[in-house]
Amino acid sequence: MADAVDYNAKWDACLDLTLRRFVYSSLAGALGGLLLFRSPVTRWASIAFTAGVGVGSAYTECSQILYGSPGKLSSPMVLDTPAPQTIRLAGWFGWSDTLS
């Protein structure tokens, strides 16, 4: 029973976070659109963009709240790297330069 209560509390926190970030980012987009743009289309586009940024950031944080933080990604290890070879450009092109 305690596990279900904890899960419900996490969902409540995520819904609250999503709603707040959506509203605050939309208001920031509306203010920025009023200050920076003249056309109503670009003003609405700035509101839509910032609302999407708010929802996306809330989604990222909610996935960390609900499912835990993702594991640390490691870079792939290169075991054997072949030595660079020198190429001579002579013959057909008439060059005598070398590229390394």
Distance between the termini: 68 Å
% residues in beta strands: under 5%
Radius of gyration: 27 Å
Total strands: the figure is 2
Main sheet properties: 2 strands, antiparallel
**Which ranges are low-confidence, i.e. pLDDT below 50, for 5 or more consecutive residues?**
none
Overall, the morphology is flat
Order of helices and strands: HHEE
Class of secondary structure makeup: mainly alpha
> What percent of residues adopt helix (DSSP H or I)?
55-70%
| SS element count, helices | 2
How are strands sequenced across the largest beta sheet? 1-2
Q: Give the mean pLDDT.
A: 82
Organism: Erythroxylum novogranatense
Family: Belongs to the MICOS complex subunit Mic10 family.
GO cellular component, one term: MICOS complex
InterPro entries: Mic10
Helices and strands in order, then pairings?
Elements: H1 2-36, H2 40-67, E1 87-88, E2 98-99
Antiparallel strand pairs: 1-2
